[in-house]
Each structure stands twice: as structure tokens, then as C-alpha cells.
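Working notes for the structural subgroup meeting. M.R. asked for a predicted model of this chain before we commit to crystallization trials. I am recording the input and output together here so anyone reviewing the notebook later can reproduce the run.

Input as submitted:
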Amino acid sequence: MCWEQDLKLSDVFEKLTIKIYNMKNYERKNFNFKEYDIEDLDTKIKYEVKTDRMTNDTGNIIIEYECNNKPSGINATTADYYIYYILDEANHKYGYYEIPVSKIKKYIKNNKYHQKISGGDGNRMKGYLFKVETFEKYLMKTCA
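Returned structure, recorded in C-alpha cell form:
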């Protein structure tokens, strides 16, 4: 999938997040705003929305921390929660996790939960690779 398609997919799931959380008064940031994607202006809760098409095949979740030698992802966010969608495109299903950013950072500090990886175009992205089971208690829903 190309970058433009990824951007469209992100847009779809950001809109879905607004619907799921029944946000009436919110602000969405543009794609290059690193701190967060959506803020519920009534609750002041900030969300970083991620979509992953590979977790069903790999059993892993990737939490980015650097891109192009600059802090990104978990190292740049001011969000309260990661809303992490795992897509099962073959079966037209998805599940989503509501993971407190503070918990992700706690798991990162405890090195037994992850390994560091590089990926993306020319290995420009660096991330933490977690087994999906690490975040199982934050699974909110699986939908068709």
C-alpha cells in the first residue's frame, strides 16, 4: 500500500474514533502534527490513532519512536491514549486497543516486553516491537 492510501486509511480510522467515542466537540490535527491526532475538547483527552495491517500475520505491534533521526511516535506524542486498530482485511474485520500512553512508556522502560527494530522506507523508522498479547487487557472491541 502506498503512502497516499495509508493517509486515506488513517483518515477513515480517525473519523471512526470520533464516532466510537461520541465526540461532539473535537479538534483533528493534520497528518504531520506529531503530538496527537484528535483532542476531545470537552474532556481534554488527546488521542493518537494508529492502524496496523500486519499484526494479524505477525502477532506484533510496533510503537514508533524515531523517524529520519528525529523523535516521533511515542517520543513525540502528548496524547493520553493510543487508539491502535488492528485490521483483518481478508475478513473485513478490525479490533482496537485503547492503550494509555503512560502504560506504553512503562513497558518500554521494562526491556523484557519489546525489542528495537528498524523499518519503513530505507529503514528510516525505528520502533519498539511488542507481542500483541502485551496489550491484550486494553482490547476494547472486535468488529466486522
